[in-house]
């Protein structure tokens, strides 16, 4: 069964450093998303991406964040200068072209620890 | 932002009995609702969904009920099995011009099935 994959599974970085989280969405999907979950809190939407551009972003997704689809398979989230409060699980998700249903399929997540 | 609420942080159910997980929402613009299941160290896994034009959707042991006037939905699992022990998230979405939109998640309910 096709699945969303994410690398690395765990990333430790120092405050102020740049990190890139990588995702390979399901191959025939057209919509891509990043969510995050701070420990003990709810899963929060960060950004959605369609047709090579951001379609929506949340207040969390400030100028320190960027997304890119550098080739036909990868979807990346870059945090330019990490802060302690960026420590969280980051989930990538993808969904197919619009149908009657909206299911988004999630990857296993990358645990980002900023020290 | 409490647009989607799951008021029970935890629920314990005897194996073989029915598990009922509840979710309330406040935003009338939501027109699609989903339930996700999450195990530790994994991403959310899609379970079942329902469109706002329906009041019930069934898939095997899982049934979701939607009461639009009360802005309430519930997930019924029957019979409950030990493998159902996980955190269950209610999520809501609405169609935009882009064809798909972010999911807004509840805080989750930890379901424990007692053998």
SSE layout and pairings?
The complex is a heterodimer of chains A (115) and B (115).
Chain A lengths: L4 E3 L2 E4 L5 E6 L6 E7 L5 E8 L2 E5 L7 E4 L6 E5 L8 E8 L9 E2 L3 E5 L1
Parallel strand pairs in A: 2-11
Antiparallel strand pairs in A: 1-3, 3-8, 4-5, 4-9, 5-6, 7-8, 9-10, 9-11
Chain B lengths: L3 E2 L4 E5 L4 E7 L6 E7 L6 E7 L4 E4 L2 E6 L4 E6 L8 E8 L10 E2 L3 E6 L1
Parallel strand pairs in B: 2-11
Antiparallel strand pairs in B: 1-3, 3-8, 4-5, 4-9, 6-7, 7-8, 9-10, 9-11
Structural summary, described in words:
The complex is a heterodimer of chains A (115) and B (115). Chain A has 115 residues and is mainly β. Chain A has no helices and 11 strands. Chain A has strands at residues 5-7, 10-13, 19-24, 31-37, 43-50, 53-57, 65-68, 75-79, 88-95, 105-106, 110-114. In chain A, the strands form 2 sheets. In chain A, strands 2, 4, 5, 6, 9, 10 and 11 form a 7-stranded mixed β-sheet that branches. In chain A, strands 1-3-8-7 form a 4-stranded antiparallel β-sheet, with no helix packed on it. Chain B is mainly β and 115 residues long. Chain B is built from no helices and 11 strands. Chain B has strands at 4-5, 10-14, 19-25, 32-38, 45-51, 56-59, 62-67, 72-77, 86-93, 104-105, 109-114. In chain B, the strands form 2 sheets. In chain B, strands 2, 4, 5, 9, 10 and 11 form a 6-stranded mixed β-sheet that branches. Chain B has a 5-stranded antiparallel β-sheet with strand order 1-3-8-7-6, with no helix packed on it. Chain B is globular. Classes of the chains: A mainly beta (115), B mainly beta (115). Chains A and B meet through strand 4, strand 5, strand 9 and strand 10 of A and strand 4, strand 5, strand 9 and strand 10 of B.
């Amino acid at each position: 069964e096709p699945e969303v994959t994410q690398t690395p599974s765990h990333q430790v970085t120092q405050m102020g450093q740049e990190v890139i989280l990588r995702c390979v969405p399901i191959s025939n999907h057209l919509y891509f998303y990043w969510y995050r979950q701070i420990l003990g809190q709810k899963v929060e939407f960060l950004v959605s991406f369609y047709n090579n551009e951001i379609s929506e972003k949340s207040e969390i997704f400030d100028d320190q964040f960027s997304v890119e689809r550098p080739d036909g398979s990868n979807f990346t989230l870059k945090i330019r200068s990490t802060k302690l409060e960026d420590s969280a699980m980051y989930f990538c998700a993808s969904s197919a072209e619009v149908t009657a249903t909206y299911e988004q399929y999630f990857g296993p997540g990358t645990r980002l620890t900023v020290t | 932002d409490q647009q989607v609420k799951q008021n029970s942080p935890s629920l314990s159910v005897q194996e073989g009995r029915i598990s009922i997980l509840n979710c309330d929402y406040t935003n009338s613009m939501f027109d699609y609702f989903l339930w996700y299941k999450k195990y530790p160290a994994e991403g959310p896994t899609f379970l079942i969904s329902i469109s706002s034009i329906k009041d019930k959707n069934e898939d095997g042991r899982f049934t979701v009920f939607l009461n639009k006037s009360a802005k309430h939905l519930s997930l019924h699992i029957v019979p409950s099995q030990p493998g159902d022990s996980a955190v269950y998230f209610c999520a809501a979405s609405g169609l935009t011009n882009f064809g798909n939109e972010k999911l807004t998640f509840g805080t989750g309910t930890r379901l424990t099935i007692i053998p």
